[in-house]
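Q: A reviewer asked whether we had any structural model of the full assembly, not just the individual parts. We don't, so I'm hoping you can provide one. Inputs are below.
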Amino acid sequence: MLRQGSLGQRVATAGALLASLMALPAISYMLTAGLRARYLIEWNLPFGSCELALDPLTLIFLIPIFLVFAAGSLYACGYWPASSKPASEPPLTFFYGLLAAAMAMVVVSRNGALLVMSWEVMALSGYFLMSAEHTDPEVGKAGLVYLVASHLGAASLLVLFSLLAGATGSFLFPAAGSLHVSSSLAAILFFAALLGFGSKAGIMPLHIWLPSAHANAPSHVSAILSGVMLKMGIYGILRVITFFPERPLWWGELLVVAGLVSALMGICIASAQKDIKRLLAYSSIENLGLITAGIGAALYGEATGSSRLAYLGMAGALFHILNHGMFKPLLFFGAGSVMHATGTREMDRMGGLSSRMPWSTLLSLAGAVAICGLPPFNGFASEFLLYLGFFGEARSSQPLLALGAPVLALVGGVAVISLVKLFGITFLGAPRSEGAAHSHESPASMLVPMGVLAGLSLVGGIFPQLFLSLVNPVVGALALGAPAGYAAPVRPIALTAAGAALPLLAGAIFLVLKRRELASPRATGPTWGCGYLAPAPRIQYTASSFGQLMGSLSTPLIRSRTSRGTVAGVAPVEASFRYQPEETLLGKVAMPALRGAATVSAFIRRLQHGEVQIYMLYIFATLFVLLLSVR
Amino acid sequence: MIDTIVHMVLVLAMPPLLIGVIAKTKALFAGRVGAPVLQPYYDLGRLMRKGVVISDTTSWVFKAGPVVTLAATLFAALLIPLGKHPAPVAFEGDMILFAYLFALGRFFTTAAALDTGSAFEGMGAAREVTFSCLAEPTIFFALITLTRLSGTMSLTPMLQSVTLTVWTGTGASLLLMLFGLFVVLLAENSRIPFDDPNTHLELTMIHEVMVLDHSGPYFGCILYGAALKLYLMGALFANIAIPFSGGDPYLDWLIFGLSMLALAVGVGVVESVMARLKLIRVPQLLVAAMILTAFSLVLVVR
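A: Here is a predicted structure for the entire assembly that you could use as a starting point for your response.
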């Protein structure tokens, strides 16, 4: 499996696999046994002591990091081998490892300054990874937008941790529930965390950078960015929330609304995409929205004294974090295999891959079914918990939160549109282009990680108990109104029964049909063209046409920009037609605002002229002024 | 035990009868004699004996479509109570699984349609997923209202809590909910005014056009699965609409069977007196039904 890689790539992959094989069992053991660990490291930086710790919240976020890092490293051996990409492979392999290490550092650090430093390393390695093909202007632009958004978020984190240090007197994190501050300062801290961490998590409207960045990165990078790095934002929000002894009701309300809006808008925009990776990126916004809504529901439950809702919301959100860390990388790997085989990202130019890429097709189907939240996969199990939480609210005196259930149903419905389109148009039907017609199956190094992730997704759906036993200690440790040892109001055994019965039923029906089919005459022929005698692959429904009906219902969110040449005369000459889905929020609000900001800040740019000696003068002057003001 | 056996027999054997009754009602309205009520059974038997024609374009997904859809619908049949008799499988949250099993079926039906590479089938698949996604929230609004009324989160206690006293207390809300559910029943089962299974133009079909290329036993599976889906959604409707119990278990089975036949006649009447909607009107009616069921929730909250 490692044959195609260079020596460096092989060593890096072996190291990644070894690290995960050692880490994942240890993490699972620590979580289920309720162990914690703390480390103090000597450093001579002026930010207080350097403290690292492993507690349940940290451990649960380490799982996707180690899982996707190992899977992605192995995948890269087939997808981005040194033999065919000699120039970009070494930096890619290096930064891939650095990104994983930085993310692990973010979740284990207990010092605000250390967290911000690791955060920057993570953000920058993400930037270098996604601009692997930086000669493409689109990649360059996407990287720039990512860099700006990332630093705006980091600025907000600086505010957060400075204020926190001001309140506690140290950069060390306050112990859980020990931060007693005025409600206005708490609100400011919460907003700073929401801006800084929320923009990393891609919560609408802070998602602007996300789709292009994830679409233009190499696929194994998109997998770790989407499957893991977005979750670092969620981790940050959760970590900050635990500092406070009590959380006001409006925090929960705000997170529920923001989460549900993100989920619905994200998936509606996804349904209109024709670029396979852009579709997946928007679907990440949806999934992160669901996670945020679950956390919000948990806070709401805590504030209203409903430990049932608090448990279901938080367990659903954490379970979904694990799940999304499996099926999203799986789908990005699938998209990578498709691009590897056909050389395009446009679904409108794919089709008919299932006969030439049977394994990729099967595994991508598993990912698509799982991400739609359909049984018997893990997506259903975590959404089931969220649904139960929202349904339970129907019995309360103020059943506002129960309205979350129809919204989830709508999100699920649109997710089916998007993923049927992704799977059906890409893999099924007849090839729409030469590239699709000459596709080839991916090597084992790409299929094995996909198989592992698909298998885990299925296990999580049939035996949700296993994953819940990892999630429950975290819910108990967060103690958001659901005391440790709170009995879950679900019987996962019912899901096990359903998950086991479905394949059995399907298998039985298939055997019966197969027998009947073999017992009677069988013929093959072309697809019935409704009387039309010369069908061509070009007349098939495309991704754009498939999403058009839903797109016509969500025009406030997304429009298709079209341009066409004029057709004139009796015998018209060559004409062309172009179309591009365009996000309305981005085109009408965000871009004009950014352009305005660019005009305003144009004169500040004069300070940036590239002359190093003047920069040093700036530094000297700043230090001088600081010294004067401090003394 | 007896209950479970009767449940399974009814669920497995009765669905095609509903289709036959609908067709007979339509024929009578049109002044024709019409096919026998048992015609759907003969059709299924004939299809199971026929050979298959398979398109060169298709892969295993094409065959998986009918198989997975029928399996999901059959499992859903275990979750819904029939009349005053509890469902064989009931647990907290089973109504979510009930709704999602239909979504699983939809995923595979539409994927199988796209597998043929036919523009018509792609068109049908796009319509199916879009309209169903608008119909789904209606069911969830209705389920929330029922959760609030009954205080439970499982289909059996939820539906059995709808008694005459509940009807006298919250009749207006239940009426709105029933209307919304009836619209969804028609839309999800491709009946007029949303879809016309007997139309002659592939361009205007929804469900029928997706299965153009299936033949023989596979097509039989699809027809049977569609009848079963109509039966299950009809049972959801009838459980709310028929709030009283006969007091005797066997009488209850009879009442349920008759109410299902009455529902089939009702669907036949609607199909006879209404014209098919223009496709662009379909989303509007579905959203209207969603808002009506939302009203029903507001009425019980007050």
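A: Points you may want to mention in the reply: Chain A has a mean pLDDT of 89. The longest strand of chain A covers residues 558-564.
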